[in-house]
Amino acid sequence: MIPTSRLTVARVAALAFALLVVMRATADVLPEERADASWRTYDGGGLKVQGPAVLVRKNFSDKVSVSAGYAVDQVTGASIDMVVLGASPLHEVRKQKQLGVDFLYGKTTYSAGVQSSIENDYDSSTASFGISQSMFGDLTTVTFGVSRGWDIVTRVINAAHQKDPNFRRRVDRKTWSLGISQILTRNLLSGFDYEAITEQGYLQNPYRAIRYLAGPGSTIYLTGAETYPGTRTSNAVAVRLKYFLPWHASVTGKYRYFFDTWDIHAHTAEVDYTQPFLNERLIADITYRYYRQNSASFYSDLFQFANQQNYMARDKELAAQDNNAVGAALSYDFLKSKRWFLKRFSGSLHYDYIMYKFKDFRDASQRQLPAGTEPLYHYNANVVQGLLTIWF
């Protein structure tokens, strides 16, 4: 059994709480008490990830807010890597727990949280701390956050999910983030975000293989284990503008630039249009997102020979690619005024269609073609997320 790339799984699993993001408190107001329940499905590239997630937030007095969340992901199918290597389809379960607390003191909010994620062959634990400060008459809000992660990588050796007793690797991760939001005019908001991540340890997939030619001029390839650097540092800078239109709608533009010590440079551009209807009881969103990156310095779809260089990888997440995504969302307030113990009750449905196109990663499952002449790999993914929220 050969799981897909760890980065792909992490991105897919992140959908667990994608719709359960609790409204960030301004620096002098705690988040509202609420409970969220969602179901989300990711289907693309031969993999399907689906499952429920819940999150509850409770305030104590007007100073302390506590949140707790739980999510389950069921992963089935076979990625292109698994198909190429002839592995059996995946049947895995991922469980995630999180606990957070916010403390309000004047115009400053202090936040702390812990999160645990358990899979068949990957356990992750994270602790985080953040500060949010409002200033200049609440026109500016500055946030700063740090987190530390401890991951354990193991390796499953058969369909019964037995683990290799001699394989146990660590990954240590540190994250620093800085955010600034600014009210420029009554109709225009701006934001700036910076994030830096350092990783150290076993950063590759214990199952995936590289491929290399059997000999000079050969059209036959052989496979071997990937070899990654033991460290990685990445940086990301993002800016956004949100403008409120005269007809009670809004348009948001975002740009993000990412670069790391593996020589990957990535650009993300996104535009979002929001339009309320029925006296703002119904809200519709349309989104378009474009993503582009170059390949890592040690990546190759097909190496010329074994041990061609110190580090060798064939993870499609490290390949050059151009991706497009379009999305639509509808949210509706079933209850807008207090009734019984409820203050508000709403539901939303989100759909995204993502088109992945790789520039230097080929579909090696086309074994009837000479190595290196296969068509470039591409696939589409459907992401559906439903959310119900009650405020109490």
Describe the structure.
- The protein is mainly beta and 392 residues long.
- It has a single domain (103-391), classed as Porin.
- The protein has two helices and 18 strands.
- It has a 16-stranded antiparallel beta barrel with strand order 1-2-3-4-5-6-7-8-9-12-13-14-15-16-17-18. The chain has a two-stranded antiparallel ribbon with strand order 10-11.
- The longest helix has 8 residues, at 6-13.
- Mean pLDDT is 91; it is low at 1-26.
Overall mean pLDDT score? Answer: 91
Strand arrangement within the widest β-sheet reads 1-2-3-4-5-6-7-8-9-12-13-14-15-16-17-18
Unreliable parts: 1-26
Work out the radius of gyration: 23 Å
| Proportion in helices | under 10%
Give, in order, the helices and strands: HEEEHEEEEEEEEEEEEEEE
CATH topology: Porin
The span between the termini is 46 Å
Q: What's the CATH class, please? A: Mainly Beta
Number of helices: 2
